[in-house]
Amino acid sequence: MVLKVEGLWKSFKTEQVLKDVGFSLQTGEILAIIGRSGSGKTTLLRCINNLVKCDRGSIMVDGIYLCRQVTDANGTKCVYAKGPEQLQIRKRLGMVFQSFNLFPHMSVLENIIEAPVRVFRVPRPEAEEKARRLLAMLELQDKEAAYPFELSGGQKQRVAIARACALNPLVMCLDEPTSALDPELREGIAQTIENLAAQGMGVLLITHDMVFAKRVAHRVIFMEEGEILAEGSKEEFFADINNERIKSFIAG
After folding, report:
1. What stretches of the chain show up as alpha helix (H) in DSSP?
2. pLDDT (tens digit, 9 = 90+) per residue, 140-178?
3. How are the residues of the chain apportioned to helix, strand and coil, as percentages rounded to the nearest 5?
4. pLDDT tens digits for 51-99?
5. In the CATH scheme, what is the homologous superfamily, with its name and number, of domain 3-99+172-251?
6. How remote is the C-alpha of 167 from its chain's centroid?
7. Phi and psi at residue 95, in whole multiples of 5°?
């Protein structure tokens, strides 16, 4: 198990966004989280990546707690890992944002080596060698000197994946990986995600694209109003849908 989420709660002011969310992710597994906009999917992903602090619950990455729930005289709260442990967790988690978040003033190669060199003190020649291997794997070896504005949506997506892979994460998180892609480019991203899982990485992705979820996922979770309403293998989930809200969502 590379990721375990238990009893996660999160609110923004008076709005309860996550309600007792829990699941696990195994090595080499592709897990798709689906649901309508506003169902809590992106907030969940941001909590896992420590971009948003949860109110209660626990998140464990490769046996290390990012946060854990404790109860004392003052009530129940989340206690977060300290600096060294947070750094270890950061190395184990890769995140590809919906908008890619590439640095516009840096070349493709510079984008990929930025975190390894500046944050984790990897020697620059070593980081560049790893970056070039990743670019070759993603068929972008001729783009290392290009800048983000010179790339197509699909190329930006693959650069963002290469950047996230540069630290050899155990878990890859992708927020709407097909949202900026033309339909003909989806198969390439699907194959990339499958290759990551085949190398032993756990992949957690959020998507509205049911065709894509059926194509790549091993397991599916459906969220609505901050709760998990259904969870199962891809085959079970799409073959036997009894919940009317899920049927309505899939039917569009």
Report:
1. 41-48, 83-92, 108-118, 124-137, 153-165, 186-198, 210-216, 234-239, 244-251
2. 999 999 999 999 888 998 999 999 999 889 999 999 988
3. 40, 30, 30
4. 999 999 999 999 999 999 998 888 888 899 998 899 899 999 999 988 8
5. P-loop containing nucleotide triphosphate hydrolases (3.40.50.300)
6. 15
7. -135, 130
